[in-house]
Amino acid sequence: xxxxxxxxxxPQELIAQDPLADRSxxxxxxxDKETGKTMHKHFKDLKSFLKKGDCLVLNDTKVIPARLYGVxxxxxxRIEVLLLKRKGNDVxxxxxxxxxxxxxxxxxxxxDGLLKGTVTDVVEEGNRLxxxxxxxxxxxxxxxxxxxxxxPYITHELKDKTRYQTVYAKHDGSAAAPTAGLHFTNExxxxxxxxxxxxxxxxxxxxxxxxxxxxxxxxxxxxxHSEFYMVEEEEARRINDVKKAGGRVICVGTTSCRxxxxxxxxxxxxxxxxxxxxxxxxxGYRFKVLDGLVxxxxxxxxxxxxxxxxLAGREHVLNAYKEAIEERYRFFSFGDAMFIS
Length: 341
What we know:
about 350 residues; alpha/beta; Thrombin, subunit H; 9-stranded mixed β-sheet; 17 strands; about 20% helix
């Protein structure tokens, strides 16, 4: 299976640079995964495609303002640090630019010394381990100094940090937003719940894999980065009860999907617990839990397009993307949405 099989031409002007004023005003392309038939709606119309007894699974991770700008104490040269994984004891795995200047022993100062970091090691993919030192509470300092780590294809400044955060974000830890959830408002979620749809929450902290392209020709040779996930006992029970009753489990976003498929046994039952997952879902994968998916439109040749193709079929997905481009849908993080049922 070649990566080029998941390529498509996307006009640059269709990459959404700013979020809409109303989260739920985005467009919604509805795709029947069996027939490939499509419908064009708005995100608020998602309610009409859900049924009493369905389960909507949300990823309640919270994006941290993980991008820091500082200076090397030795030279005063500017340096950018992106926090990726908390390792404990104020040590983080990070992505540093320029990396060649960040050798072990390098001290970086942020906010005129409010926060300092010392590079302690170089690890996989050239990432740096940094030991931070500060006075006070790290999260408060980060909120003051850090910026939201928007993807590189978004060049506009984000004026409101909350717009790169879902309304149900709860657990700090992500380096990127689970963007399919950005379309939901509290009002829409309340209306969905009042219909008799069960809402369950899982947590997967989105990591570096979101930013990394697939660099191999053969899909099977690609290695996914591991990400931390949590499924609480009560949430696992809700999802399993819906499956037992014959209801559909519909994940909001590929991160929720990957969490459930990682946490489920071969019998399809979701197990409570936490851990690290590097699950890679591509065509040929047999889903254990997932029945439907709410998702955004993804980058060409990305692992996310491959996951969506595993659910709905590559030809159906690429045809739907072609239609979305013709209909001038907005793409990627701040773009429009798709519901695969």
